[in-house]
């Protein structure tokens, strides 16, 4: 756990040398969420056609807890033959059961699944935290309730699709191949599966290699909910399994959330086919803080936007553009707040910053932070006693960042904030838009007209005003530029899974 009584900039290269004194030692005692309610099997097979199947390859891989490095379970590696069986099961279920089923009947299944997620929310949250490293506060209070909300929301649409798009008789597409990342494993699954099922499609989903356990838990929910066999199928494995799934010829729709590099490859693979595609990719979101903003609120928003959940958030506010006149005051407030963040055991209910999801991701963050130091930016890290085992990264601020630095351009996907300044709104917009991405932005000012002026000009799928990271299933989410295309959530999100004949 972090020692918050004194905060020192520890990095040897070009540091501020600042020490921040905080009053006394006021740390909370640990309050650990028990993992007792969770049962994890030694091994998980593939969930195909309503049952558990052994992988054709006979191969399995370990999934670990990134905060302890202990192996939690072994997961099946699905190869081409397994993917083929899963797609066939989804095709049969689409043609024989789910496609012909009325929206009213489909809605009942979705409601049932939503209720079961609520009933078992604590188990799912603990499992998510153990397998992925995110703080239990995040999985308990955000990921799992939001996932249930997505199923409730889409259950409501299932029998009203003709009203969603008046004058159009929308049809399902068929079999949806869905591939998701490791940062919001259960929530991304809900974002994918709920709209697909509501609109009458069947699904083959591949979770990320490091975080398959809650998806496998979801399979047991589908089973208990009596969902007809083949409507939802899960194939686990590495990138090749995902590649085999999206390129399978009998898939009608591909929905991918992950890195821009992989998204581009999938788009190239699908070129010339009739498959419908949506891509939710990376981001380099900017907070823009004007001098009239409520600064303490903005500090909280900035901290929430990048440090909670270890910066493993596609729409994270990983850049801060702060108006020049308030730069020093704002950065000082931020450093003080950083000093109070608790880094450590993700199952502790007081933890703000949990474990980095994998060693590979930790290496990537470390490499980019080193590039920031080498490029001449000034680094600040509070003093932090990190656990001996597991993957951890100290919350980090960079000042004196220039737009050409890698830390200002590339997605770090870790608890690292790059701070730049601006003088007027035009400059703020130019700098905010100066990345290949276009996923999110946050504007902090008391002037409503300025918020609207900025929102018009920012290349971002979502612009939050005087808040950050607010989500609702009714609100469409998605990107511009290299952050992808298509929307998830809301009425727009339904379109990604339907043939409207237009
Ligand atoms: P990733 O490496 O692209 O992986 C995403 C998923 O694709 C994983 O299941 C992965 O399997 C699989 N995959 C890897 N190579 C593949 C291929 N050639 N064909 C098909 N599937 C393949 O991304 P990540 O590192 O897991 O996730 C972080 C990224 O996701 C970040 O860039 C983040 O911004 C983005 N993200 C975007 C959103 C959004 O809504 N825009 C939301 C969340 C995350 P393995 O796990 O086995 O490699
Ligand atoms: Mg894991």
Task: Based on the model shown, name its key terms.
Aldehyde Dehydrogenase, Chain A, domain 2; binds NADP nicotinamide-adenine-dinucleotide phosphate; Aldehyde Dehydrogenase, Chain A, domain 1; disordered N terminus; alpha/beta; globular; 17% strand; binds magnesium ion
How far the N terminus sits from the C terminus, by CA atoms, comes to: 56 Å
What's the CATH first level of the largest domain? Alpha Beta
**Remind me, CATH topology of the largest domain?**
Aldehyde Dehydrogenase, Chain A, domain 1
Structural class: alpha/beta
Question: In terms of per-residue confidence, which ranges show pLDDT below 50 for 5 or more consecutive residues?
Answer: 1-18
Q: Provide the number of structural domains.
A: 2
CATH architecture of the largest domain: 3-Layer(aba) Sandwich
Rg:
23 Å
| Average of per-residue pLDDT values | 94
Oligomer: single chain
The ligands found in this model are: NADP nicotinamide-adenine-dinucleotide phosphate, magnesium ion
Number of helices: 16
CATH superfamily of the largest domain: Aldehyde Dehydrogenase, Chain A, domain 1
Estimate percent helicity.
25-40%
| Shape, principal axes of CA atoms | globular
Number of strands: 22
Task: Kindly estimate the percentage of residues that lie in beta strands according to DSSP.
Answer: 15-25%
Largest sheet: 7 strands, mixed
**How are the strands of the largest sheet arranged?**
16-17-18-15-14-19-20
